[in-house]
Amino acid sequence: MNFVAGRWSERIGRKQVPFWGWVAALPIPVMIWYAPDWNWIVAATVLLGVNQGLCWSMTQTSKLDIIKAEERGLTMGLNEFSGYIGVAIAGIQTAYAAEWLGGPERAAGLRDGSGRLGSGSDGRLDQRHAPLDEGGDRCA
Q1: Which residues contact 62 (CB under 8 A, 6 or more apart)?
Q2: Which of 25, 32, 91, 136 is deepest in the core (most CB within 10 A)?
Q3: pTM (whole model) above 0.90
């Protein structure tokens, strides 16, 4: 994506590249929330990669254009630091939002559906491992 961002910046201008990167990201939350299967999640992840590639590449290029050569290392370090802090804050906010919006129930629905494919479970795991009562039958 970095190469594509560079080529596009020469053709359509540097301001337009991050704009189209953010446009590519607009459907991601809706795609993930209403995903009928994992293919939608994969497609949303691809769009997220397009967003990150276009936006980050132009951010780096723009910063390198406006600073002195001897300040490039500090500038890139500050950019990486702020990026990771932003990801950490977004992760925390996402966890709170998931809890507030009923995330665990949604996650349980995903586990009951497509999550079984990855785990190999057929949904009867709890019943098979339930303790036996006095008559030898399963309690659950």
Answers
A1: 14
A2: 25
A3: no
112 conformational bin, left if phi > 0, alpha if psi -120 to 50, beta if neither: alpha
Report how far residue 35's alpha carbon sits from residue 3's, in angstroms, rounded to the nearest whole number: 30
121 backbone dihedrals φ, ψ, rounded to 5°: -80, 145
The fraction of the chain above a pLDDT of 90, given in percent, is 22
Q: Which two tokens stand for residue 61?
A: 């290029």
Decide: helix, strand or coil at residue 132.
strand
Nearest to 17 by CA among 26, 25, 8: 8
* Residue 115: closest CA among 35, 38, 33, 43: 38
CB contact set of 63 (below 8 Å; sequence gap of 6+): 75, 76, 79
Confidence grade of residue 118 (pLDDT, cut at 50, 70, 90): very low
Indicate the residue type of 84: Y
